[in-house]
Amino acid sequence: MRLRRASIAALGAFTLLLAVPSSASAAIGEFSYTYTGLDGRPHVRVLLDPDSRECITLPEVADPNASEPAHSPRNRTASTATVFTEPDCEGDFFALRPLTGRGSERMKLRSVVFS
Q1: What is the mean pLDDT of the chain?
Q2: What is the extent of the structural domain holding 55?
Q3: Which of 1, 10, 23, 73 is the most buried (most CB within 10 A)?
Q4: Which tens digits make up the pLDDT trace of 25-60?
C-alpha cells in the first residue's frame, strides 16, 4: 500500500513538473534603458523577464524618423543581451553580459534580443 501511494505521489509530482512553464523561454531578471519622452525629459523603461531568442523592438523608439534612439542599457538578466541600433534587430550591435552588462549614454539602441 505504501509503495502504491509513493508511486502515485511521484507520478503526480512529475505531472506538475511538466505542466509548469520552463524558464528557458524567458531571460530571468530585468533589462532597463533610458529614452527621451515627448515631454523632452529622460524616462527609464524596464523589461521584466523578457522572452529569449525573440527580437524585441523598443516601442518608444521604434520609428527612426520620429524619435531619438534609447541609450544607457542595463542588463540585469541571467542571459546575454544583444542590443541593436535599428528596429527588428538590425544595424550595428553590441552584446551586454548577463547580470552586470551596461552601456553609457553613447550606446544607442532601438531593439534587443536575449540569448
Answers
A1: 85
A2: 23-114
A3: 73
A4: 788 999 999 999 989 999 999 999 999 999 999 999
